[in-house]
Amino acid sequence: MTSTPFPQGRTRAPGLMLLLLQVVAVLGLGLAAGYFHHRVDLLLEPVTAACGGPDPAARLRMAEVLMARAGALDDWQPLRWLPVAGMVLALLGAMAICVHWWHRVRRPLRTTALGLMALHASAMALAAWTLHLYEDAWNSVVRLSPTACLVDLTQQGRMPLEQAQEVVFHIFTRAHAPLQRNPDDLALVLVALLTAAMVGGVALWRAAAAEEGR
């Protein structure tokens, strides 16, 4: 009989469900990251390269525009709970399936099921921290972007906003902390963790199916 990557039998339903939930978790993470970057793009959309130029009044108007846009984008805040809820429910469901398999399989595979459960729990903890960092990064961008426009860092006032923000971040944090990059780095780690969970889930699924066929 030809071996297939997705075994049949009584293990088919929980196996497919676990894989589907893991995919939903990855998609939820992608939505959360995309939502953050989309909000940042919308916030900084009206900013020119000179952030208002050398005229202090123009820079003040630009800062006011940024604050107004930040206030308008706050109305979108409830939308951020959609990917959060999707990720949490998907990972909880994946852990429930691991518990189901832990009760059904024999002792050698119970350790694998327990390890897979711990992997999903770690993914949930990392997801919570990543989403927290995304929200913290958003609040920092909202707070510091108008400041970057108001501070005249050059005599000509032609410093690009990105460079001005970097200097302002250094002033406020005493370190060149790339606020927007840190959660993205953690998100990549989380994707790798979820990918490992997918591989482990398929391996456990196949092992459980083989055990069932004996």
Automatic annotation (TrEMBL):
What is this protein called in UniProt?
Transmembrane protein
Q: Please indicate which superkingdom the organism of origin belongs to.
A: Bacteria
**Native organism taxonomy:** Bacteria, Pseudomonadati, Pseudomonadota, Gammaproteobacteria, Lysobacterales
Alphabetized, the UniProt keywords read: Membrane, Transmembrane, Transmembrane helix
Query: What transmembrane ranges does the database entry give?
Result: 81-102, 114-134, 186-205
